[in-house]
Amino acid sequence: MKKLLLIDGNSIMNRGFYALPPDLTNKDGLHTNALLGFLNIFFRIYEEEHPTNICVAFDVHSPTFRHELFKDYKGTRHGMPEELKEQMPVIKELLHTMKIPTMELAGYEADDLLGTMSRKGEEAGMEVTILSGDRDLLQLATENVMIRIPKTRAGKTTVEDYHAAEVQSVYGVTPVEFIEMKGLMGDTSDNIPGVPGIGPKTAEKLIRTYHTVEAVLEHLEDLPKNKMRAALEENRELAVFSRDLSRILLTAPLTVEVSDTTVLRSDIFSDAVRERFLDLEMKSLLKHFMDDSLDQPKGPRFEMEVRDGKLSEVKAFTSPGSVVGFYPVFAGNTLLGTAFSIGGNVILTETDAVASVYELLSWMRTNDVTISVPSLKPLIRPFHITEEEKWFNIEVAAYLLDPLAGEYPYHTLLQKYMGFEVKSEKDLVGKQERNVFSFAVPEMRESFAMWAYTAELLCPVLMEQLEKADMMTLYRTMEHPATFVLQDMEQYGIRVDRDALQKYGIRLDSRIDVLTKEIYEDAGEEFNINSPKQLGQILFEKLNLPSGKKTKSGYSTNVDVLIKLQNVHPIAKRILEFRQLTKLRSTYVDGLMAAIAPDGRIHSRFHQTVTATGRISSAEPNLQNIPMRTELGRELRKVFIPEDGFVFVDADYSQIELRVMAAMSGDENLIEAFRKAQDIHAATASKVFHVPLDQVDSGLRRKAKAVNFGIIYGISSFGLGQDLDISRQEAQEYIDQYFETYRGVKSFLDLLVETGKASGAVRTLYKRIRPIPELKSSNFMTRQFGERVAMNSPIQGTAADIIKLAMIAVREELLSRGMRSRLILQIHDELLIEAAKEEVEDVCRILEDKMVHAADLAVPLYIDMRTGANLYDTK
User: Fold this and answer.
1) Measured by CB atoms within 10 angstroms of the end CB, which terminus of the chain is less buried, N or C?
2) pLDDT tens column, 101-122
3) Pairwise CA distance, residues 722 & 563, whole Å
4) The whole model's pTM is what?
């Protein structure tokens, strides 16, 4: 028997749109969540049903005959989100590529087309399945027509199946009576009125008894005299009208005949469809093409062979000029073994002989072999890697191509770039720690092999992608050498005066104790100061302070609330200080103390694949976030000290983001101010507020500074008004005056937003890509955020690129001269050198030269430089 699969196109697309993450986009910024949702459920149903005939129905954006009958039909529905709307023509184009017919007809809904086609299919002797998320279609169920409704719970999708018998079993009425129920209870989603006051239970009871709306109305005298009966008497015509409005038409004038719906499996799984999925970057769908009953699709296949071997065999199988995937397995500092992938053949070697592995790697390097690894930085020290060697870093390459991903595990990369669906390391290995990894455990062996295989397979793919994205130069000249700089910084670490840190903690404890007592006295009782709920009750119920906004979880006691209250009652100011000091104690004193290594130094981890803008980040612990706002917080810097016989030399770029904005925008007024070495904030105040430069006071300079930096981050009049404590109108006037003065900046920022909207991404001066999917959002606030990101990312990212170039140049110079001084810390726009005392003058000259000349911009770069016996003295 032939099977006809009918699909409610709008319903299934809508379901996919809301079921999958909204940030799923391809390189062109096209949202793909609805497409993926539709196609995933389509392939599932297709493999379950094996239909011979298929047709998909869509709604047309125009009034239907129901609107003519009732102008408010579906009047409560919101318009289709733009992110979904842009995917509708794409799904139709994909269905056309798969040679699946579609139908849509002005004046009729997709439901009417589905209903009519289902009856035609049934009359032709077919088994019919209707796939939809809309339960209104249950009225179409018969013995031969099944309604399949996808449902997702706890992240798992199931499908409910309804023939006529199942409809009656679940709802207590037949499919035809299901329509009669709608007449009584209405439908809020379609804005069908029904009879006021009658809900599903009452409607079901009445229809089960009388079967039709007309019969219910004929037997009103049999019903008890209550509100229900009165409502039915008053709304006789409305009940019949609502029922008729709910009935799906079974005689719509179709433009597609049943005979037109035959679809061949070879058309659905054709090379053209596969290539279209690749174009749209929906590689997860390629798993459906791996059916042995079909001709094998073009392109790479997942073919990994794993076996045990020796390092000598690895050498024997490696050809000069080839690519080898390499993944060493460490437990702490102990090598457990290696995985080498050569032509998809993975050789696992269980060995702790680092020297032997190093010898093999050296042979590979001399034979022009490219060694590709999942992550390069952890391998630099144990294998004595130098940056001129032919190593390829999968993690960094993948980061440049997709800086928003955050993590780059092998299963994600294989799926994204090859369309392979494989188990993740977590799925294979579970929660076991790396120090219990063993080559004797099959699942662990497989994960080791997958890392090496991925490194080999993706090396040429990612190289090609970097070339296409015009970022290979960025990779080679900046990101690759930066990996070596970061490894050096991690290895060197920064020395900490443990005694000074302990004394600092004691000072904090003493002040926290005093504050605790004072807060208890203010409150008139003891309570848990760290409990927002208890604190809210004290502030707003016991002390009756203003600004108490109660939510479901209690009163808000965040920083903004406490700042507003600090001049109202002394308890608010004390709580603010209490919070600052307890954070200093827990985060910095306790956190830093635990991070001091046996050598007396803290070895932070520096990451280059975390931030979307290209900035370096620090973790375990974060040394880029040492407090600076309060004097007590700044004093923490005194515990960071250089090695005996060394001093700290700190160099900080002066206003680098403003200089980058001037150079990239080409604004003549801003460039002139920097070239003349003017105080840029005073110069801005002079031009914006029309005051002679020598008459700019501190107040005007402060306002200009807020505008200068605010413009970089796309600040709004509301935000600037809050920063300066002025009205929104006055803040907008400042912004307008700024853009009137620096017209080139305004044009530049507008161009960035336009570029972001057109291409879905913006770039730094060095071609680094920053995708901005938020610009495609239907949510106004999300789009506004996207516009701010579009304005800021090229500026902040270019500044980050420049500091990386400076880091690389400074390190190379120190090494080439054989100096003892070393770069140990980068804090955004600032470099810290632990300089041997006899080399301080040379270090200062190197920093001045390499940082100032790191980039050739239309404006000069300047640095502020200081030396000190601790980190505090350098500021």
Assistant:
1) N
2) 999 988 888 899 999 999 999 9
3) 13
4) 0.69
